[in-house]
Backbone:
């Protein structure tokens, strides 16, 4: 299992080589990959990046659960200078899970 806490996959191209590696059929095993985010909206953006990656040749994976509020995330609001008005940011406030790679993965 791999977990990326508040990863911001949607905003960092540096994640792409790792995602490609995990999603390769040739790896030979499947990897549950949990991604957390500060908000559901950010998590949905992360999910779009993963979905696009999985449309490319040789990349294999499926969604275990779509982005949703993480009931195990922090209850404390995260103060930031760039908060979108009306949006509450919380550490690990949302999560989703993907199953990547493996010879038998779909």
Residues:
């Amino acid at each position: 299992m791999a977990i990326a806490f508040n990863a911001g996959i949607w905003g960092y191209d540096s994640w792409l080589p790792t995602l490609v590696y995990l999603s390769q059929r040739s790896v030979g095993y499947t990897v549950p990959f949990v991604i957390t985010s500060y908000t559901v909206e950010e998590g949905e953006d992360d999910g779009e990046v993963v979905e696009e990656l999985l449309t490319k040749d040789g990349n294999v994976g499926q969604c275990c659960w779509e982005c949703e509020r993480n009931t195990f995330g922090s209850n404390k609001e995260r103060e930031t200078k760039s908060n979108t008005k009306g949006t509450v940011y919380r550490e690990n406030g949302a999560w989703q899970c993907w199953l990547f790679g493996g010879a038998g993965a779909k």
About this structure: Strands lie at 2-4, 31-37, 61-69, 94-100. Residues 7 and 52 are 17 Å apart (CA to CA). The chain has a mean pLDDT of 89. The longest strand covers residues 61-69.
